[in-house]
Amino acid sequence: MAAKRSGARSKRSQRISELLQPVQEPHSEPPLSRERIVATAVELLDAQGVDGLTMRRLADRLGSGVMSLYWHVDNKEDVFDLALDSVLEYRGPPQIVESQDWRGEVVHMLEDWRASMLRHPWSASLLPRRALGPNILGRLELLSKSLSRAGIADADVNVAIWSLWNYVMGATITRASFDRSDDDRAAAQQRLTRLSERYPTIERTRLLLDNDWDGAFRKGLGFLLDGLSPR
Amino acid sequence: MAAKRSGARSKRSQRISELLQPVQEPHSEPPLSRERIVATAVELLDAQGVDGLTMRRLADRLGSGVMSLYWHVDNKEDVFDLALDSVLEYRGPPQIVESQDWRGEVVHMLEDWRASMLRHPWSASLLPRRALGPNILGRLELLSKSLSRAGIADADVNVAIWSLWNYVMGATITRASFDRSDDDRAAAQQRLTRLSERYPTIERTRLLLDNDWDGAFRKGLGFLLDGLSPR
DNA sequence: ATGTATCTCGTACACGGTACGAGTCGCCGT
DNA sequence: ACGGCGACTCGTACCGTGTACGAGATACAT
User: Fold this and answer.
1) Within 7 A of a protein CB, which nucleotides of strand D?
2) What is d(CA B155, CA B97) in angstroms, rounded to the nearest whole number?
3) pLDDT tens-digit profile of B187-204?
4) What's domain A30-86's superfamily in CATH?
């Protein structure tokens, strides 16, 4: 009944054998490990998208049997969680940004967050459905500190975090899925022009955004921060 | 090579037979139709979530064979598109809101939008990945008019729409997925309290949001609109 | 009577996640 | 020296999925 490695993840004991003899066979793959699995999963996701990740493909790419994966990870969901968090590290703002400049801090972190997710377009739409990993929690914590330092009332800080989260997630999820569906750009183009007769605004908006998503994100974020700033 | 009903959807010709003889058998299901399929798909999605919708279950519930569905619908993706759009109708603001009150108009539409998606929690996370249906386009169109009437500069209207879209989508997707993962509330609770030692802000935020998501949404939206309003 | 269009559906296939249990290997206590 | 045990690998099998294919059924036009 109990799964082999359910809750407590017993990392294998550092593989002493490998430390002694450098390489067993010339072309043998390095042994499986949670880290290697996650890294390869990210590769696969980047290359093929969410649906491209299957346990079989993952095992192939790792040069192992499918079921071997299940000793290191609980199931496919687990792989998603780990891949997701591995992609969301944050190293903090550059030194250039001074600690007085709360707004610069916040903007830098959020733009970095968005950029990280856009580098791995599968990640954004996955994030809301999965458990919050340590890296996102760290970002939220940092956000909270900056906003408090900005002089925003304690009662409003939560709402502010929530608003910024919403904005970033919405923007990035939407942007990422636009990229993906542009595979069939011809069809999309045709569909849109057909629609723009009935919905005159859409075409205008699309054109503007198509050329400058980054600028639009930054500008909208600016408006939001304007609204959030203490008066 | 050409699919039976690829692009041009040839609606069947009103089933004359049924108009003549009211019911063929006492307990026979009404005939299949795109509308009935979509309505049943929505039922299924509401009851079982995204993964609960399978073509076989859908056919069962409709009392038909699986492959019969494929005459009315291109594929499963098509079903998602149709179900999604069918859930996003908007009837416009109530008469109480006067046409001068652009802000009231916008708030009403956006809150209605969010409410519609939360009534069907599968819908929010699906929306960004799917083609924009007529009902969402209609909402965006309306948004655009209200904002122009508000006196927002033309160049900024696009960014404003984009920002509001982002906010609503982010808020709703996140909220909807919280609901879903609360099935295992015990586990979530434990996980969060364990985390809140390292990330003190999180617990506070969660508590606030847990009790008053609607209020937080409204308040954050207020901040955003403050930032967007012409100065 | 003979098509022809509309609609239904049984069968079959390729592919997905993963349960089960038999293997291999190296270390440790005796 | 040996027996056992824990760490790890993996082949096979099962069931559930979307949907291609093509054989029917029905109604209507000619």
Assistant:
1) 7-12, 16-22, 26-28
2) 27
3) 555 666 666 677 776 666
4) Homeodomain-like (1.10.10.60)
